[in-house]
Each structure stands twice: as C-alpha cells, then as structure tokens.
Amino acid sequence: MLCRTAVPVCLCVLGAGWLLPVPWLLSLVVALALSVTLTDFWKCIRVAVCTIKRDLQCLVVILRVKYHIHQHTRNGATIPSLFAQTVNSNPDKPALIYESSGEVWTFRELQERCHTVAHWALAQGWAEGDVVALYLESRPLVVALWLGLAMVGVEAALINYNLRRQSLHHCVTVSGARAIVFEAKLSEAVVEVRSCLPQDMLLFSTGELGDDDTLCSLQAQNLDLLLTCSPKHPPKHTSHKAFNDRVFYIYTSGTTGMPKAAVVVHSRYYRIAAFGFWSFGLKRNDIIYDCLPLYHSAGSIMGVGQCLLFGATVVIRRKFSASRFWQDCVTYNCTVIQYIGEICRYLLAQPQCPSEQRHRVRVALGNGLRPAVWGEFVQRFRISQIGEFYGATECNCSLINIDGKVGACGFVSRILPGFYPVRLVRMQEESGELLRDAQGLCVPCQPGEPGMLMGRIHPGDPLRRFDGYADPTSTSGKVAHDVFQMGDAAYMSGDILVMDDYGYMYFRDRSGDTFRWRGENVSTAEVEGVLSGLLGHADVAVYGVPVPGVEGKAGMAAIAQAGDQLDLDAFLSDVQKALASFARPVFLRTVTSVDTTGTFKIQKTRMQREGFKPQTSTDVIYFLNSRSGRYEVVTDELYDEIVNGHMFL
C-alpha cells in the first residue's frame, strides 16, 4: 500500500509540480524521504509514474458518468425517457437487427412497438410496480417488451429460457409476477410448472412452432395478435418512476444454488451502459454484435444499452454460434463484438476461415477472457482493443481494464485509493469467512495476496449503492459490516481476485471454488485455463473432491472429449511441466460435454456430488497413481484402495 504522504507528492510532481517553486518541491521530497525508506520512496514514484495516465483517464470516465447520473436524477429521467431522446436524434437509423431473419427495426419502429406493449399492459389493468415474467429466447421483441412495460412503470423479470421445473418455478414466483410471456416453443416447460403457479396468473404466448394442444391446455392468450391490434402512439400515462426506481430483474446464473432476482434500477442500467461506452471508446455509429442472451446484463444492458442510450446499432443473434460468428460480423459490418465466459476460447477452437480476417471489428467488449487465451485471441482475429471488465448485475464494485493490460479484469488506483472505495480483503479460503484485525475490521490484502473483492455501500451515491435482490434474505446475505471502518456496510462479491503492485486486478476464482490440497490453495480457474490450453481449448471443469482420511480435497478435472482418444501419458507429461505438483489433477473424468449456464459459466455441482466412485457415472474416471507414475482407470478394486487410504501413504 502506498503511504499517504506519497500521494500529494506524486500528484504535485507529475500533475502540476512545475507551478510550484523549486524549494517547495525540494522540501516536499525531503519530507517524503524522511517518512519512508528510500526503497519505498522510489517504489511510490515508479508506481505513480506508471499509473497516473491510467488513473486520470478512469477518473474522467467516473466523473462523467456521475455527472450525467446526477443530471438525469434531478430531471426525473428514466430509461424510456432517455430512449425517447435517442429516437428524436436518429428516427430512421437501424436500431436492432435480428440476425435470424434479417429483420431491421429503426429507432422509430422500436419506439412504436414499445408503445404497443405499453397500451397492452395498461389494458390488462397492471399498475406501476407490477411484474411480468419474460420467458423468451433472444430477439428484438424482448427489448420492446421490457422497455414498453417500463414506459408505464411495470417491471419485467428476465428469465433464462433454459430453466425448467423447479428452477423455472422459483424464478417466476420469487419475482411476484402477475403474468408470464413465453415463447410458444417453450409451452411444454410452462405446462410443467403451471399447477404450482398462482391460478390467477395470466399467460401470453408469442412466436411459432408451439404445440397447439399444449397452448390450448394452458389457456394462453396470443400476444402477437394483441400487440398487432394495439395502438402505436404514446400512451396517455404519466409514470411516477424515478431514476433510482426499479426497471427490471435479472437473475444470477445459479451456479451455487437457485438463481437470485437482482434488482436493476434505471440509474444502474444507465451506469453499466455508460461505463462501457466511455471507457472503451465506443461510438454512436458503431454496429455491435450481441450474441449474448438478453436475460443477462451483458446482453441486455452492456449491449442493447448502447442502442437505447447512445444510438448505436445492435445486431441480436438468437443463440451464440462459434461457426457463424465471424461471418455474421462481416455480413452486418460489425465494429464491436461482445463476449462473456468461454466464448473467446470457443472461437479459437474453430478452424480458420476467411471471414475471421475480413471483418471490421476493432473492439471486443466483455468479461471472463482468460489470460491463457488473451494474446492468441487478439493476434489471430486482429482485434485492436479488448474492453475487459469485471462486475455482476447487482454489484457496486465493478472494475474496468481501461488500458488493455493483458490478463487484468480491471484496476484500483494506488495513488488515489479512496476515490473508488473497493478493496480486496483476507478470508478463510474454505469457509469464506472474512478475517478481521484486533479492531474488528476486515484485513486488506497486500499486492500478490488473493482476497475477496468488497465494495463500500453508500445509498446516496449511484456508483456505491447496492439495490439487492427481490428476496430480502438474499440481499442481507451479500452485505458485511465493519469492513473499511466501524459501522459501515460493504457488498461481498464472493469472487477471489489478486492485485499487483500497480493496482491491476486479476480474477482468481469464485469463493468456494478454491480448494486446499497438500497444504496449498488450488485455484480452479487457473488450472482450468492451463489444462484447456494443453488440450487445444477443450472444455475443462476443475473442482476438489474429498478423499476419506486425507486432509483437504484432491483435484479432479472433467475433460470434454470430442473425437480423438486422450493420450494420458502425453497429457501427464505436459501437466507436469505446466503445473505445480499440488495443482495437478489427482483424478480425471472424461465427459461428452461440460455442464454450463446460458452465459457459459461452468457448473460443477453435479460432478462434485458424484465424486470419483465409478458406479455413479457412465463417464470414465482416472486416478494419478504416484506409484506407477501414470493415470489409471478407477475400478472397484482401485476405488477401495483409495478410500481406505492405501494410495496416499
């Protein structure tokens, strides 16, 4: 941590030092030299010199976003009212392009479709604060629905269209929805939960390919027909929603339990989109390729938000396709692409094609680009700028990598640490418990020391507020107290990051994913990246499994096999060169595919539960036998030896 004395000196020398008389500068330098060691002094100067440009650039973005949020709050703006201003500036410009059909909606047409939705909502008798669940695949109608509902103060719940049964029922009910709009082709999934939903809940279907008998049994109304008959002019309704009121709910991915409905207010929507626009040099004439699901904040806010608030054109793809990705970018002249999770690795795993060199893309915007594939992705696809960021829909400690530092998901300033109050704090790796000092405060991490990212909560600051979830219990579970100072409150991200000397942050793992083996902490994300690279960007899930009588958890890697048989001896040789002994997988599991969420986050719960017992799965499981020095198939006999402790003597 830089000493407090170093901050004003560094700023004077580097910012406006030439305005001060030389004696003043000399006295300041002498004062600093007396307060710290010579080594620390020069370290402070070096860090300040290397980071001042980055920090000031980010400071300008933060102040710009704060200023506009203040203005919009004072003027009583909402996302629909800001969108109306965008329409007035670009009425006939393409707003949304639907890749699946080539359908193009201009800004005026999008606004008219929103008006039809608003009239339909009023006709149903819904009031401000009522909730409508949207269970739809990605297409422009999703945008028109939630934005049209927002025009009359009705809130949408954007539900993952991959969910079924218990998870689907949970997401609909936790939002308190009065109605559900669903894709006709998803009618069978709705039938499975209909008996558990309130009997007075209204159902509306849209789209084709649905089962007529199933739709009839649901008594669902045809939304397409209703909207066709609905007026296109602005509704006569004065919304009482303010900039800090709710616009919709977005659900967490549910990798560690049931999804939670995160509250998104109008100011948060604006903040996320605006940071993306100004941090990474986006332009109003950009064409953005959005292949991410619109039930997710990256697709619906970071992507579509550039259209609604800044006038960019967004190409919406129903589902991500690695084989069609670059050809789509060429076809629609895209200048910005979005990624999340493992998309970049999937693209690298594709065979080379002419379109990957003929595109006009200059910015790749997203989060989750692994350091192991960063350089290869930029070089192969000729991407000028990576706009990597860190953040969750609900968090107040988002980070941005504003200067393209390879591998970093963002940074915190070392010379202005108090301006953006986020911090890495020490925690107990396995339990997730925050460690505290003698005064009861959380212990900040030093550079190179992994810790949980925390953000101080300040309800009056739009960048620091935490709006929580629909469920109050879930909200309270993400808040810690007495973190920065006694009596404060802070948001717990649940993510483990590590910071270098210059303040760059690197994602390490999610809380609970790190496990301990042979007295060392093993980062699952780090090992996954290494193994995937060794296997030509194959899907890999790494997790810890308990072994009876052995301390900690043994590493297990589930590897998706596609075609060729895995050469275990060659693989082990590569692993031994790439990973420390404690990080090498003790168990391997070959699978046909790795479970992922709709946003390409790896799900491990089922495999962790099954462990390494051969009868629990049809997958082949291998054990790294230290005696033979190779991976061997886990048979019933070998399993018994392992659980009896004979293989770890």
Strand content: 15-25%
Query: Mean of the pLDDT scores?
Result: 88
Strands side by side in the biggest sheet:
2-1-11-10-12-13-14-15
Largest sheet: 8 strands, mixed
Number of helices: 21
Structural class: alpha/beta
* Anisotropy-based shape: globular
Number of strands: 28
Low-pLDDT sequence parts: 1-21
Structure description:
With about 650 residues, this protein is an alpha/beta fold. The chain contains 21 helices and 28 strands. The protein has an eight-stranded mixed beta sheet. It has a seven-stranded mixed beta sheet with strand order 7-6-5-3-4-8-9. Helix 9 links the parallel strand 6 and strand 7. The longest helix has about 35 residues. It is globular and about 75 Å long. It starts with 5 loop residues before the first helix and ends in a 6-residue tail after the last helix. The N terminus is likely disordered.
Write the SSE topology:
Layout: H1 6-16, H2 22-35, H3 38-74, H4 79-89, E1 94-98, E2 103-106, H5 107-123, E3 131-135, H6 140-151, E4 155-158, H7 165-174, E5 179-183, H8 187-194, E6 202-206, H9 212-218, E7 221-222, H10 223-228, E8 246-251, E9 261-265, H11 266-279, E10 287-290, H12 297-310, E11 313-316, H13 325-331, E12 336-340, H14 343-348, H15 355-358, E13 363-367, H16 371-381, E14 385-390, E15 399-400, E16 410-411, E17 422-425, E18 451-456, H17 472-476, E19 479-481, E20 489-499, E21 504-510, E22 515-517, E23 520-522, H18 524-534, E24 540-546, E25 553-560, H19 568-578, E26 587-591, H20 605-610, E27 620-625, E28 630-633, H21 636-643
Parallel strand pairs: 1-11, 3-4, 3-5, 4-8, 5-6, 6-7, 10-11, 10-12, 12-13, 13-14, 25-26
Antiparallel strand pairs: 1-2, 8-9, 14-15, 16-21, 17-18, 18-20, 19-20, 20-21, 22-23, 24-25, 26-27, 27-28
